[in-house]
Specification:
The complex is a heterodimer.
Chain A: H1 3-12, H2 15-34, H3 42-71, H4 75-79, H5 85-95, H6 98-119, H7 121-152, H8 157-187, E1 192-195, E2 198-201, H9 202-228, H10 236-250, H11 253-263, H12 270-290, H13 295-306, H14 310-315, H15 319-337, H16 342-369, H17 373-392, H18 409-433
Antiparallel strand pairs in A: 1-2
Chain B: E1 2-11, E2 14-24, E3 29-33, H1 40-47, E4 55-60, E5 63-64, H2 69-75, E6 76-79, H3 91-101, H4 106-119, H5 135-147, E7 153-157, H6 165-180, E8 184-189, H7 192-196, E9 201-206, E10 209-210, E11 216-217, E12 223-228, H8 235-241, E13 245-250, E14 253-257, H9 262-274, E15 279-284, H10 289-296
Parallel strand pairs in B: 3-8, 3-9, 6-7, 7-8
Antiparallel strand pairs in B: 1-2, 1-4, 4-5, 9-10, 9-11, 12-14, 12-15, 13-14
Classes of the chains: A mainly alpha, B alpha/beta.
Chain lengths: 438, 301
């Protein structure tokens, strides 16, 4: 047996604990079956309890599987073990949540039986797969978040656990909402979805999408665990993820393009690029916030580049750097495709300049404020995008701070890139000035 | 066994190690000493492949920590200064998990756990939860976890901190036994007295550098201490005349360096007795750790 799974089972799944969970759940369901109509509905109670066990409590258990190791100072011994990264991931993911899954699996028949009864075995099976994958997805996101937070070394395990739990629960709600939206589409008469020009049934498209997101979450856990266990990761997995993001998001061109082309006079070929660019930009901001952005590592990367060791530098690039570069490429391609509509092209160029500034703000936040600096950077961005534009609106000068369809588009591009390059220079200065003297 | 070349390690805004070069001999206990914040723990963590150097390299048993960290982990045991245990698990389960997590198969893990427990004197407490053990016993369990896979190298960071005198003596005995079995041990501490009992060599880390540039032999070598029951004139001259280099001298004692092996020592002792010197002690000289330490670390009392 996987030793990490076995250790977690020893700690989390004692016979007494499992018997207690089973006894309490069966008591709740028995009460539901004899309660007056309307007071308590067993399937609904089972669904609520499934969410409690698999998502609310499960995300906490998954996050704690790493956070507790740090808190109890056992993480170093785990890093020194010869357990492989994938074995460690599933040992924690299933082992630390063993009691949660036990409770969730007791609930599952009470949820699926009415579906089977009303809609047949196929519908029940599909719903079961969705619920199980939802639980694994939420827990995988919580585990991934905890592995990311390790690098940030915040030192506040309660806050870390809470943040990981929030990430996992948020992912579960997004997952479930996407699935639930099928019903709304069906009610509006839509049964198919166009992707890369092909029609797919809503149910199958959503199911495959959800399982792919689950797959990426697990790959993310594996990659983060590799890094913790001192394996060299390289940029290839993240590049593959970016390729997936580009292909997945650009494929909605058939669905969204017709609506957009009705509103804007832009070439059809540009719509997939725009969709891909927006998705890439989201990953750049997300990773710029989440990753450690270690100043020593950035200086080391600079040294590698200066000494011509390009491949070594490439292997050590952080995810946000790759996302940023990919967004720049997509943005420049989009600006070229929109050359016939100068205001749109200039707005894209301005957006790239502002993004450069924003990424630098995250870097400076880390350099000046440590792990907590990321939240400071978020505060500065909130001021730049929400508060200051409100003040500048009366002077018609919002183009100086935020991208958008401005009348002074060229000035906006100049302002954006002046800020972007200025902040780049500031980052480089700080890295250089803080280099230790031998 | 451990080769460190031009090793540099940076924390943000602060260089912890400045181009360290060091060679650590196999099957010996090397004490890593130095003041708090000197870089001892950082150096140990780099040896354990838990950190990545900014520059330079560390090889253990011929393997580079940057290129093959996991292969090194299979050959290495590490006890951090602030270690943790799974308090809710029994000693048996803690050791079984440690064995399994170091790649020992399920069939052999039970035996490996029992052997490690016996080695540190925990065989009679196998069913006791780790959380119920005293500090000294927890220390033993942590060491047992680090050696359960019989590593070639054992790194210990401040292993005797907080232990009572008996537990410290037990620890010294255990470390010497492990060395005698062929293990290479590196022990970090800033308490010199506790290292004196078992260290063969000493490395002084001071402000991210190795003071003196190399490790210092504390035991073995060709230093001999000669003590007389009563003072007798001409001791130094006699020793010089018989090929010994006199390093320290007094009316009833001398410390000398003598080339050659056991035969040379036997001949010198026989000569002293034949010449009527009342020899009460004739032994290999061990340098006092504290003496060497303060001689190397300039600017300290």
């Amino acid at each position: 047996m996987n030793p990490e799974l076995q250790r977690n089972l020893w700690l989390e799944a004692s016979p007494f604990r499992l018997a207690l969970i089973a006894g309490l759940l069966l008591l709740v369901f028995a009460a539901g079956s004899v309660a007056p109509t309307g007071l308590m509905n067993t399937p609904r109670a089972a669904l609520g309890l499934y969410w409690f066990f698999a998502v609310l409590w499960g995300t906490r258990s998954a996050a704690l599987s790493v956070v507790v190791e740090i808190r109890e100072r056992t993480w170093d011994s785990q890093k020194l073990s010869s357990i492989g990264p994938w074995t460690m991931v599933w040992g924690k993911l299933l082992g630390a949540t063993a009691a949660n899954w036990f409770g969730a699996l007791v609930c599952l028949p009470f949820i699926l039986w009415p579906v089977w009864h009303d809609d047949g075995a196929g519908a029940a099976l599909l719903y079961g797969v969705i619920l199980l994958s939802l639980g694994v997805f939420a827990q995988a996101v919580a585990l991934l978040s905890s592995l990311v937070l390790i690098h940030r070394q915040t030192g506040n395990w309660r806050l870390d656990t809470f943040l990981c739990q929030v990430a996992g629960i948020g992912a579960a709600f997004a997952y479930y909402s996407l699935w639930s939206s099928i019903r709304a589409f069906r009610e509006s008469g839509t049964t198919t979805l166009a992707w890369w020009g092909h029609d797919f049934t809503l149910g199958s498209f959503h199911l495959v999408s959800l399982l792919l997101f689950l797959g990426w979450a697990l790959i993310g856990c594996w990659r983060a665990m590799r890094s913790e266990l001192r394996f060299a990761n390289g940029p290839y997995v993240w590049l593959a993820y970016l390729a997936y993001v580009v292909i997945y998001s650009a494929g909605f061109e058939s669905e969204i393009g017709a609506k957009l082309r009705g509103q804007f006079d832009v070439p059809a070929a540009s719509i997939p690029v725009a969709l891909a660019g927006i998705s890439l930009m989201a990953t750049a901001y997300g990773m710029a916030f989440l990753e450690s952005k270690d100043p020593v590592r950035l200086r080391w990367l600079g040294d590698q580049i200066r000494s011509g060791r390009w491949y070594s530098a490439f292997l050590a690039t952080e995810c946000w750097m790759l996302s940023y570069a990919a967004t720049l490429i997509a943005g420049l391609a989009l600006a070229a495709l929109w050359a016939g509509t100068p205001s749109a092209a200039l707005a894209v160029l301005a957006m790239l300049g502002f993004m450069t500034r924003d990424i630098c703000i995250f870097l400076l936040g880390r350099m000046f404020g440590g792990p907590k600096g990321d939240f400071g950077a978020l505060g500065i961005l909130a001021a730049l995008y929400l508060l200051l534009p409100t003040l500048l609106r009366h002077a018609h000068a919002t183009f100086l701070l935020i991208p958008g369809p401005h009348t002074d588009s060229l000035l906006s591009v100049m302002a954006a890139w002046a800020q972007g390059l200025g902040f780049c220079y500031w980052v480089a200065r700080v890295i250089r000035d803080r280099a230790p003297r031998s | 066994m451990i080769e460190i070349t031009d090793l540099v390690f940076d924390y943000p805004g602060h260089r912890a190690l400045h181009g360290v070069n060091l060679s650590i001999a196999a099957s010996a206990i090397t004490a890593l000493v130095g003041p708090n914040g000197a870089g001892k723990t950082t150096l140990l963590r780099l040896m354990a492949a838990l950190e990545t150097p900014y520059d330079g390299r560390v090889t253990i048993d011929g393997l580079d920590t940057r290129a093959a960290p996991r292969a090194i982990h299979e050959r290495l045991g590490y006890l951090p200064d602030f270690y943790g245990l799974y308090d809710a698990l029994s000693v048996r389960r803690c050791l079984f998990y440690a064995a399994r997590s170091h790649g020992i198969g399920p069939g052999e893990a039970k035996g490996a756990a029992e052997a490690a427990a016996a080695r540190v004197g925990l065989a009679d407490r196998m069913e006791q939860p780790a959380g119920a053990l005293s500090r000294g016993l927890r220390q033993r369990l942590a060491i047992a976890q680090a050696i359960v896979h019989r590593p070639k190298v054992l790194l210990l960071d401040e292993p005797a901190a907080g232990l009572d005198p008996q537990a410290r003596r037990d620890l010294s005995r255990l470390l010497l036994e492990l060395r005698d079995d062929g293990m290479t041990l590196v022990v970090s501490s800033h308490i010199l007295a506790e290292l004196e009992d078992y260290s063969d060599r000493m490395v002084i880390v001071d402000n991210g550098r190795i003071a003196g540039g190399e490790s210092i032999a504390l035991k073995g070598g060709n230093r001999l201490r000669v003590t007389l029951a009563q003072a007798k004139e001409g001791l130094a001259d006699f020793l010089k005349a018989h090929g010994a280099e006199v390093l320290e001298t007094g009316p009833d004692r001398a410390v000398v360096a003598l080339a050659g092996e056991a035969d040379a020592r036997a001949a010198l002792l026989a000569g002293l007795i034949a010449a009527g010197y009342p020899v009460s002690e004739f032994a290999q000289d061990t340098q006092a750790l504290e003496e060497v330490y303060f001689a190397r670390v300039r600017g300290r009392p």
